[in-house]
Design brief:
This protein is an alpha+beta fold. It has two domains: about 190 residues, Methylpurine-DNA glycosylase (MPG) (3-methyladenine DNA Glycosylase, Chain A); about 35 residues. Helix content is about 30%, strand content about 25%. Strands 1, 2, 3, 4, 5, 6, 7 and 8 form an eight-stranded antiparallel beta sheet that branches. The longest helix has about 35 residues.
């Protein structure tokens, strides 16, 4: 039994993303995080899992959309530290945002986790960074600076077919001058859980799917109406 448990633990540790995965440029990590599995374990044994489908890279103090652009502060201190730790901040008086510190110590890069698909029968709307943290119970007070190579919350390697990743501009960074146009948002091109506004390719694909679904609903309603009319005549 002990050897079997040890084998299982070894397998799980091999799937878990290591510090070296995060200790790379944010742009590279943001791309590679799409398709990985975010895992949250509670003390009562509850485990929630979701497949990441959308990220954004913030590539250092020179990136005017990055919090580190305003210097090293109490808030951003974690960004200047070791890769693989959570940087959770609170915005609009409503939402906690989960970021993962990347790159070398002192370089202050991070990746924002924007959206995911729930797994294992878990029903949750994770199509936005605030929705994701709320569903997972991630908060600044509880999780800021958390080591994501530990056992409480961590990420596992993608399983199965690798996603088709497309790039677009980041959301809500119009203030960042030239950096507002940087193509540093990464999304799974085949996921419906990506947050809005969708990149152009997704907009065309999902828009067509929505039209087809709407058409099916209209046709079904017409068939029901016709059946009712025929029944009334009989």
């Amino acid at each position: 039994m002990a050897s079997e448990n040890a084998a299982i633990l070894t397998m799980l540790n091999q799937r878990k993303l290591s510090r070296s995965f995060y200790a790379r440029e944010a742009e590279v990590v943001a791309h590679d995080l799409v398709g990985t599995i975010l895992v949250r374990r509670e003390r009562d044994g509850t485990e929630r899992r979701a497949r990441i489908v959308e990220t954004e890279a913030y590539v250092g103090p020179h990136d005017l959309a990055c919090h580190a652009a305003k210097g090293r502060t109490a808030r951003t201190e974690v960004m200047f530290g070791e890769a693989g730790h959570a940087y959770v901040y609170f915005i609009y008086g409503m939402y906690d945002m989960l970021n993962i510190v990347t790159g070398a110590v002192g370089d202050a890069q991070a990746v924002l986790v924007r959206a995911a698909e729930p797994m294992d029968g878990w029903e949750a709307d994770l199509s936005g960074p605030g929705k994701l943290t709320r569903a997972f119970g991630i908060t600044r007070g509880r999780d800021n600076r958390l080591d994501l190579t530990g056992d409480r919350m961590f990420l596992e390697r993608a399983t199965g077919k690798l996603p088709r990743v497309i790039r677009s501009k980041r959301i809500g960074v119009d203030y960042a001058r030239d950096w507002a146009h940087a193509m540093l948002r990464f999304v799974d091109a085949d996921s419906a859980a990506v947050s809005k506004p969708w990149p152009e390719e997704l907009r065309r694909k999902n828009g067509a799917a929505i039209k087809r679904k709407s058409g099916d609903v209209v046709r079904a309603r017409r068939r029901r109406k016709k059946l009712i009319e025929l029944s009334d005549r009989g």
